[in-house]
Amino acid sequence: MINYSVRFTLGSGNKKVLKYAKQTSFFNRLCEIEEECQSNSLEVKEEEEGIKLTGHICKPTVNHGNSTQIYTFVNGRPIKDNLLIGAIRYAYQDFILSGRYPFAVLHLEIPYDQVDVNVHPNKSEVRFQNKRLVYEIVRRGIIKALSTRVGTFAASDVESQSIEEFDSQEQIDSKEKKNQKEFYEKRPSILENRLMKEFNAPDERKQSLSGSFKYEGIEKSTPQKGVIVLEREQIDLVEDHPLGCAHCQVYNTYIIAEAKGKLIIVDQHAAHERLIYECLKQKSSIKRQKLLLPETVEIKNQAGMEMVEMCKDKLFEMGFGVEIQSEDKVTVKEIPAILGTINVREMVMNIIDRLMEIGDNLPIEEKVLATIACHGSIRAGRKMMLEEMNELLRRMEETKCAGQSNHGRPTYIEMKLSGIEKLFERR
Questions:
Q1: In-domain check, residue 365
Q2: Position 26 in a domain
Q3: Which residues span the domain enclosing 255?
Q4: pLDDT digits over 354-370, tens only?
């Protein structure tokens, strides 16, 4: 992999097992070895204090049950290092399920006086002088790649094109390029946004969630005029926004939207879950709501009770007022306000499961916030109004990592119009 400018062949008897041509770039060699890199690769670049990180990772949808697809190199030498693998897994924790491993090929160039290669007879391990810095460079480099490049996921049966490829299209005008640039910019928290409040009050359907659709201004006596206004606004959404204009909801789970030259299918639960999660991560404190009737939860697992006791103060910061009642019972008096009406026992048990997964090795915030986001987001089967659908699309365009759920699934896929036309043999 790392010596891409060298041609390699491997034979066994008269049979050639491997044959790799001389390549002009590291990426070309990766694509030669791993075909999935061609369409799923994200470039990683990071540098600090003389330490340079380069390489390629795959989108989170490409994942495996073990770490055999993680390749790390230091100064041109392949190594296996738990510190690097730990940094890679930590960077991916918001994107893939626990127990799954990403595909990653990373090369660290480090000044020779800052790394000891003589700690293993086969030179397969090294000792870093500044472990914390190396860990941070790897973690930060991967998160940057994932945050800025994780976009849409194409339907496998049709020709597609992801939003990250917009700039390569010659026909895109400057306005569309501006929208593409802004698609992944970090925006201020929208936790207090009216959208979130409406989503937590499913029975309140009458008020519009945004100013994009001026239903209040449509007079009943002139329905034709109202239809014309709506159509014009729909056209503007299709032309000016990467995720276009929502047209309908199917199975009360998926939003069907039309964008310029393509069809968008959004998983409403996965998309809203990512929005809430990113909002919660930006909040220094989370608003709590008191339960009218405190919920007593029995925890039969002793390790689970120990984790609750150890993390009680941190849970309070994240919106949970929990009191220990006995060796196997806790009382929940407050929950995050964003959750609304939920099954408190189920929520607490899920959080305990997440805490036990990570133990005391990693900060607990990410796992707990991800659980809150899952319970607080729009459920599959929840009917949405057209205004809500479009507001969800707009919020996705303003939120980083919006193309990926917290569990490694795409929040939406796209189908190019040209691909659909091919299916119907129209071209």
A1: yes
A2: no
A3: 153-279+383-423
A4: 777 655 445 667 677 87
Distance CA 88, CA 75 (A): 18
Residue range 297-333, pLDDT digits in tens: 888 878 888 888 888 888 888 888 899 888 888 999 9
Are 166 and 180 contacting, i.e. CB atoms less than 8 angstroms apart? yes
Q: How far apart are CA 267 and CA 271, in angstroms?
A: 6
Helix, coil or strand: residue 171: coil
Q: In which residue ranges of the chain is pLDDT below 50?
A: 149-154, 156-196, 198-200, 202-223, 226, 360-361
Strands (E), 194-281: 245-250, 254-259, 262-267
Give the model confidence (pLDDT) of 199-224 as tens digits: 445 444 333 333 333 333 333 344 45
Spatial distance between the Cα atoms of 142 and 285, rounded to a whole number of angstroms: 27
Cβ–Cβ < 8 Å for 337, 289: yes
Looking at the fold, whether 303 and 237 belong to one and the same domain comes out as no
Helices (H), 219-261: 223-240
Q: How many domains does the chain have?
A: 3
pTM of the full structure? 0.56
Half-sphere exposure of 135 (CA within 13 A, CB side): 11
- Residue pair 349/315 in contact by the 8 Å Cβ criterion: no
Q: Are 294 and 274 within 8 A, CB to CB?
A: no
d(CA 158, CA 161): 10
d(CA 105, CA 29): 11
Query: 98, 129, 149: which is the final residue of a domain?
Result: 149
Q: Between the CA of residue 400 and those of 188, 393, 412, what are the distances in Å?
A: 11, 13, 14
Q: What is the dihedral of CA 85, 31, 146, 132, to 10 degrees?
A: 30
Amino acid at the residue 63: N
Distance in angstroms between the alpha carbons of the first and the last residue of the chain: 40
Pull the structure tokens for residue 87. Answer: 């940094």
